[in-house]
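Morning, I've got a small favour to ask if you have a moment. The fold is given in discrete form, as structure tokens running alongside the sequence. I'd be grateful if you could look everything over and explain what you see. No rush at all, and the record is pasted right below.
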Amino acid sequence: MAKPPSHFLSRPPMPGAEARAAFDALFDRSIASGPNALIEYDLPWPRWQFIGHIVESRKLIAHGSQDGAIHTFEPRQSHDAHPFGNRKAVYGASDGLWSMYYAILDRATHPMLLVNSAAQVELEDGALGDPFYFFSISRPALDARAFRPGTLYFLPRDSFEQMPPLEIAGQRAHVPQWASLVAVTPLARITVAPEDFPFLADMRGHDDGFIMERAKADPDGFPWLE
């Protein structure tokens, strides 16, 4: 069975049937009030599990932001090392944990370079393995604990296209990054705090100059470990 490289993080276990049923009921009640409904989360299971289940089971796109009052997502020009992510588009992920990373970063107060990814390795039978992740921010921002509460939006997938698979350490990996070239109205949103993110203690810090030099010299060498 294919395995991700050792420096990647594996997703913690997802919840059982009781939790999934409660998640579905809460989401359905919330979106009944109309577009961009605020989900008042009051369930006993971790918030990240709710987000992950809803995104995956409803085939939605998640978008994390520090702005909790977005009513429509408009395409914006992004700047990414990969051509897929370097377009004027609305970006999001079919992986809730990856989107939570973006929601909790205080980039307004602490400028930072982000190095991150999520992926699933394609197995011999064509199925996908469990998700794995890499999360890093500029070392000064990490030292300053540049985290704060944010908002995760649930977006319909209709207008989105997924990033093509990549080769990571000789294995075919599917990245849950998606892009829409047209505006998107959220179905719902939920607030998230840094302590809701299960990989907060595993966040790496890096030297921006070193990473930029390594990335320029080897664009396919992600994550350019120091």
In short: Helices lie at 17-31, 47-57, 96-103, 139-143, 208-217.
